[in-house]
Design brief:
- The chain has 263 residues and is α/β, with parallel strands linked by helices.
- The protein contains eight helices and twelve strands.
- Strands 2-3-4-5-6 form a five-stranded mixed sheet. A five-stranded antiparallel sheet has the order 8-9-10-11-12.
- It is elongated.
- It starts with 16 loop residues before the first strand and ends with a helix.
- 26% of the residues are buried.
Length: 263
C-alpha cells in the first residue's frame, strides 16, 4: 500500500483533543494525529530528544529533518540553525520570516482547513499576549481545579499585589504568572494547579541556603536542596504544598522576609 493510499482516514478513525496544544509535547501528539491530512505524506523514522526532534521520509524516500515547536518563534529563541532541518512543525507560526528552503507546517491551519473536529475547543487568545486574572481563573476552572486550588491562587495573587511583587502575567500557552522582585522570579503558578520555583532565575547568591531551609520548614518537608539553586523545575501541586492556610501563610512570610532583605 502506498503513502497516498493510506493518507485518507475514515471518519470513525478521527481522534479528538480537548484543547489546542499548550506544550511542545502536545504539538508532537497532534502532528501524529494529523499526518494523514498533510499535503506531503510522511513516514516517521524516529522521534528523539536531541535536535532535530524527528527524522522522517517523504513519498520519494528522501529524509526530512523536523523540529517541533509550540510557536514558530521558539525556533529562533532556542538558537537553532536555520539550515539544520527541512521542516518546522508548530501550532502557530508567529515568526513568518523563514528562508525559502525551510518549510513551516502550522498545525492550526491544517486543523482549520482539513480536520476542525479533531479539537473540541480552540481558544481565541492570540499567542504573545499576557494572561490576566480573569483568563487565568477561567482556564483553571476549565482544567478542573478544586475550590482549594482557586482560593490558594487568589491568595498568591493578593500577596503579590500587596507587596509590589507582581503578579507578572506571562505569555505562555499553558497559562502562568510569576511572583518576583526586580532581581528575579520567586515562584511561578500555572493553570494546571502547580507551583514551580525557577531558582536559576532568582539570583539569590549566598542567601539561597538559608532561603531553602526556611522554605522547607514552612512547607513541612525537605523539598529544596542547595543544588536546586541552579535549577528551575522544582515544585509541586498547590494542594500538596499548602494543605492548610497555616502552611500557605508560613510560605508567604518566608518570601516577604526574603524580599525585604533584598530591598
Amino acid at each position: 500500500m502506498s503513502l497516498q493510499e493510506i493518507s485518507k482516514p475514515s471518519p470513525k478513525s478521527v481522534p479528538r483533543f480537548a484543547h489546542e496544544p499548550r506544550t511542545e509535547q502536545e504539538v508532537v501528539c497532534l502532528f501524529g494525529a494529523l499526518l494523514q491530512y498533510l499535503d506531503d505524506p510522511l513516514i516517521i523514522e524516529q522521534v528523539q530528544t536531541p535536535f532535530p526532534d524527528c527524522l522522517a521520509r517523504n513519498a520519494e524516500g528522501e529524509f526530512i529533518k523536523i523540529e517541533f515547536e509550540l510557536y514558530g518563534s521558539h525556533f529562533i529563541e532556542h538558537c537553532h540553525e536555520l539550515n539544520a532541518c527541512q521542516w518546522i512543525v508548530c501550532w502557530i507560526d508567529d515568526w513568518g520570516q523563514w528562508p525559502k528552503n525551510l518549510r513551516v507546517v502550522e498545525l492550526r491551519e491544517v486543523v482549520r482547513a482539513k480536520c476542525p473536529s479533531i479539537i473540541e475547543q480552540i481558544s481565541d487568545r492570540e499567542p504573545g499576549t499576557p494572561w490576566n486574572i480573569d483568563l487565568f481563573v477561567k482556564r483553571c476552572m476549565k482544567n478542573g481545579l478544586s475550590k482549594h486550588h482557586l482560593e490558594t491562587i487568589r491568595w498568591l495573587v493578593k500577596f503579590a499585589k500587596d507587596r509590589n511583587l507582581g503578579p507578572e502575567w506571562l505569555t505562555d500557552a499553558k497559562g502562568s504568572f510569576a511572583v518576583r522582585d526586580i532581581r528575579g522570579q520567586f515562584f511561578k503558578v500555572y493553570t494546571d494547579g502547580c507551583l514551580r520555583f525557577p531558582f536559576s532565575r532568582l539570583n539569590a547568591g549566598d542567601s539561597f541556603s538559608k532561603l531553602a531551609r526556611d522554605l522547607n520548614e514552612a512547607l513541612g518537608k525537605d523539598l529544596i536542596a542547595d543544588a536546586d539553586m541552579k535549577h528551575k523545575g522544582k515544585g509541586d501541586d498547590l494542594a500538596k504544598l499548602f494543605p492548610t492556610a497555616d502552611r500557605l501563610q508560613k510560605f508567604l512570610t518566608v518570601w516577604e522576609s526574603f524580599a525585604n532583605q533584598r530591598k
